[in-house]
Amino acid sequence: MQYRFLGRSGLKVSALSFGSWVTFGEQVDTDLAYDQMKTAYDAGVNFFDNAEAYEMGKSEVIMGKVIKKAGWKRSDLVLSTKIFWGGDGPNDTGLSFKHIKEGTEAALERLQTDYVDLLFCHRPDLYTPIEETVWAMNQMISEGKALYWGTSEWSAEQIRKAYDFAKQEHLRPPLMEQPQYNMFHRDRVEKEYRMLYEDIGLGTTIWSPLASGLLTGKYNDGIPEGSRLDLEKYSWLRKQLLETEEGRAKLKKVKKLAPLADDIGVTMPQLALIWCLKNENVSTVITGASNVKQVEQNMSAIDNMDKVDDAAMERIEEILANKPGEEQDWRG
Ligand SMILES: NC(=O)c1ccc[n+]([C@@H]2O[C@H](COP(=O)([O-])OP(=O)(O)OC[C@H]3O[C@@H](n4cnc5c(N)ncnc54)[C@H](OP(=O)(O)O)[C@@H]3O)[C@@H](O)[C@H]2O)c1
Question: Domains in the chain, ordered, with CATH?
Answer without folding.
Answer: 3-214+266-306 (3.20.20.100)
